[in-house]
Write a structure and sequence with these properties.
The complex is a heterodimer.
Chain A (H helix, E strand, L loop, with lengths): L5 H32 L6 H19 L3 H22 L9 H23 L15 E3 L4 E3 H23 L1 H11 L1 H6 L4 H23 L9 H16 L4 H21 L7 H12 L10
Antiparallel strand pairs in A: 1-2
Helix pairs in contact in A: 1-5, 1-8, 1-9, 1-10, 2-3, 2-4, 2-8, 2-9, 3-8, 5-6, 9-10, 9-11
Chain B lengths: L1 H14 L7 E9 L10 H15 L6 E9 L4 H13 L5 E4 L3 H14 L2 E4 L16 E3 L4 H14 L4 E7 L2 H16 L3 E8 L7 H9 L4 E5 L2 H13 L8 E4 L4 H7 L1 H4 L3 E4 L7 H13 L7 H20 L4 H10 L2 E3 L3 E5 L5 E2 L2 E6 L12 E7 L1 H4 L3 H4 L5
Parallel strand pairs in B: 1-2, 1-3, 3-4, 4-5, 6-7, 6-8, 8-9
Antiparallel strand pairs in B: 10-14, 11-12, 12-13, 14-15
Helix pairs in contact in B: 2-12, 3-4, 5-6, 8-9, 12-13
Classes of the chains: A mainly alpha, B alpha/beta.
Chain lengths: 292, 397
């Protein structure tokens, strides 16, 4: 097809899916935060970077391995997120979206600056855990075990999040609290705490993506800065606040970007934004968004 | 402090032992202070420039040097507007460092327009001293030809003939790919394909897969800094070397090796102009530098800033002038000599000729401690390391 052997095409499709896994995890966190809190969380990339750094610190300073980092990091960074929400973001709920965006953007610059100051920009080594080293030859490509693991982990987490928010009682409280916080509060539910936890959860997802990324991308303070722009485009395409939209467009755009890399690498950094522009023109609320 | 300086100066004048210069020189270190190249240039280059000023004993010689620095964010437009402001409003006499070839070419242009001095250490495109050469620009440390010449030649001698390039799509990456391709073809090799990606990148798996599919003997990485680190890491993951292909990272800085870890980097061939553990001069510099920069050893770019500031100050002292043409003529007419790069000379196009070295990265077992990373494979003498004036395509003379 298109003068490219089928084998290469399959390989690129699979790689796209792997990149899509990161987009999906990150845009999921953003969508949860926007959907529930109406905050455009520009600090998401910085918190993803923090996730990778915390994993590295756990290994380097405390000798805690990858598997524990996968569990501990989202909790630590999520708690940090909850702290930010409680002390800073919660003061802005009565103001325009723009203020939340500016605050989180400032936070992102601060966090990245601090890490840059402490660790430099060339990155820190983090090796793939022994259990996931190596890979399998699929005939059309060599698939590293670790990348296969990333796809699986991302799919499981995305599905679990969707179930949590759409199908459980806790999720119902949350959705109700976004609709009408006063009424939900009147039923005896602590709405501010619910919101803090939601923000912490969204941040935890970013941190989890960071841990997953640590062994394959260099752990450095700039790793989130470029990614966050792409992830925002993914969220806009999927429809702001739509969880399903974030996941589907995350994987889908990963694949499209992967194919662009194969056929026309020069265009790979703009293809997502071109699609975003088209989607905004045709369907301003995004593919899965509800028109307000 | 000021009083002591004044006293020393007047004493010197009175004794007549030092030239009564009392020149104020302002130099600007313009580089990446926050992006992918911040560790290999950045604040370290400012430290190196200040060390050169201190080692030269500028104050005692009646040259009062101030250093300013700024972040060009690897963007040519920002680089040229800072350069313009420095020259026009801030009284900067000479600009140093400037990694990222596209930014360096922009600064070279502004410098020529304003008739100032630009001594580049961080950038590597041969265009800077080739078709876009300027009488006001000197390229100190390395260039893409020298890199290709070191690494590619060695691999071709080992019989690795077919090449595939993964290239950062901007001035530097393109120049590096072109210069390497030329050497590969001249020595009887072939280039089977390339993947040019938008700079900077983070995921290289698509390109690695393409490279793997090309069945080339060598995958040449025409990129630098964090991009190289990521490509190497991911190449290891995709089992490139186990599949029998070799990787030639054409530009590797010691900070990159540090970031990859020796497990990933071991065995890699590195063409470099400088390594801290080369001789007594470099070791002394390395240790003093590390003491000021959180224990990090200097890269060849930072070493180049040290050496170039030193040579510039020598010219100012010798000519008793900071007139751009006078200083540049002196630098090009006289041999260079410093503890880091040894003896060398400067071609009319601004290319500094000094020895280059081919190193191999040590395995974790061979390394005796932090920053003990390289072993010497070969020394490439200055006359063979770089393009000649005729080869460069520069029309100055």
């Amino acid at each position: 097809m298109f003068g490219i052997p089928a084998q290469v095409l399959f390989g690129q499709l699979l790689l796209g899916l792997i990149n899509g896994s990161f987009y999906a995890l990150l845009s999921l966190g953003l969508a949860v935060i926007f959907g529930m809190l109406n905050v455009i969380n520009f600090a998401h990339g910085a918190l993803y970077m923090m996730g990778a750094f915390v994993a590295w610190m756990l290994l380097t300073y405390l000798g805690i391995n990858y598997w524990w980092a996968l569990l501990i990091t989202p909790i630590v960074v999520g708690a940090f997120g909850a702290l930010i929400e409680r002390t800073l973001i919660s003061r802005l709920y009565h103001l325009d979206h723009l203020y939340g965006l500016l605050l989180t953007f400032g936070l992102a610059l601060l966090i990245e600056g601090l890490f840059r100051n402490a660790y430099g920009v060339s990155g820190l080594p983090y090796t793939i855990p022994a259990a996931l080293a190596g890979g399998h030859n699929l005939g059309f490509m060599f698939l590293p075990n670790y990348r296969a693991w990333v796809i699986i982990a991302s799919l499981v987490v995305c599905a679990a999040t969707w179930v949590l928010i759409e199908k459980t009682r806790l999720g119902a409280y949350l959705r109700a609290a976004t609709e009408n916080p006063a009424l939900v509060g009147a039923f005896g539910i602590n709405v501010p705490r619910l919101i803090t936890l939601t923000y912490g959860f969204g941040v935890g997802l970013a941190a989890l993506a960071g841990v997953l990324a640590a062994p394959i991308y260099s752990v450095n303070p700039n790793m989130g800065a470029d990614l966050v722009i792409v992830v925002f485009a993914v969220v806009v395409i999927g429809g702001m606040g739509s969880i399903l939209g974030a996941v589907v467009s995350g994987f889908g755009l990963g694949i499209i970007e992967g194919l662009t890399r194969a056929f026309y690498p020069q265009g790979s950094s703009v293809v997502i934004f071109v699609i975003m522009a088209i989607v905004l023109l045709v369907k301003p609320a995004g593919l899965f968004g509800k028109t307000a | 402090m000021r009083l002591t300086k004044a006293l020393l100066l007047s004493a010197a004048i009175a004794l007549g032992t030092a030239p009564a210069l009392a020149t104020d020189v302002k130099i600007g270190v313009l580089n990446d202070r926050s992006g992918v190249y911040a560790d290999l240039s950045g604040e370290g280059s400012v430290i190196a420039a200040k060390m050169a000023i201190a080692d030269f004993d500028a104050a005692k010689k009646g040259i009062n040097v101030t250093v300013v620095s700024a972040d060009h964010q690897n963007k040519p437009d920002i680089a040229s507007s800072i350069a313009r402001q420095w020259y026009d409003q801030d009284g900067v006499d000479a600009i140093f460092d400037v990694p990222t070839s596209s930014a360096a070419l922009a600064v070279s242009q502004v410098t020529k327009e304003k008739n100032k001095v630009f001594i580049d250490s961080g950038a590597g495109s041969t265009a800077i001293v080739g078709k876009s050469c300027s009488p006001n620009t000197i390229l100190w440390t390395y260039d893409t030809y020298a890199l290709a010449n070191g690494t590619a030649r060695t691999l071709l001698k080992q019989g690795k003939k077919s090449w595939f390039f993964i290239t950062a799509d901007y001035a530097f990456g393109q120049a590096l790919e072109n210069d390497t391709s030329e050497i590969v073809k001249n020595l009887g090799g072939t280039v089977v394909g390339d993947a040019k990606y938008p700079f900077p990148g983070s995921d290289f798996s698509s390109y690695l897969l393409k490279a793997q599919g090309s069945k080339a003997d060598v995958i040449g990485l025409a990129n630098a800094g964090g991009d190289t680190v990521n490509t190497m890491k991911q190449a290891a993951e995709f089992g490139i070397t186990q599949g029998g292909q070799s990787i030639a990272a054409l530009l590797v800085f010691i900070t990159d090796v540090n970031a990859m870890g020796l497990d990933t980097a071991k065995g890699l061939l590195v063409t470099s102009a400088f390594y801290w553990d080369q001789n007594d001069g470099t070791r002394d510099f390395g240790k003093r530098f590390a003491a000021q920069d959180n224990g990090k050893m200097p890269t060849m770019v930072q070493a180049g800033v040290y050496a170039s500031v030193l040579d510039y100050l020598k010219a100012v002292e010798a000519t008793k002038s900071k007139d751009s043409k006078t200083v540049l003529d002196w630098m090009k007419a006289n041999p260079t000599d410093d503890p880091l790069f040894g003896k060398g000379s400067i071609l009319p196009n601004g290319r500094v000729l000094h020895d280059m070295y081919l190193y191999q990265v040590k395995s974790p077992a061979e390394s005796k401690g932090p920053w003990d990373y390289y072993k010497l494979v070969a020394t490439i003498p200055a006359k063979d390391a770089f393009q000649t004036m005729a080869q460069s395509g520069c029309t100055l003379n």
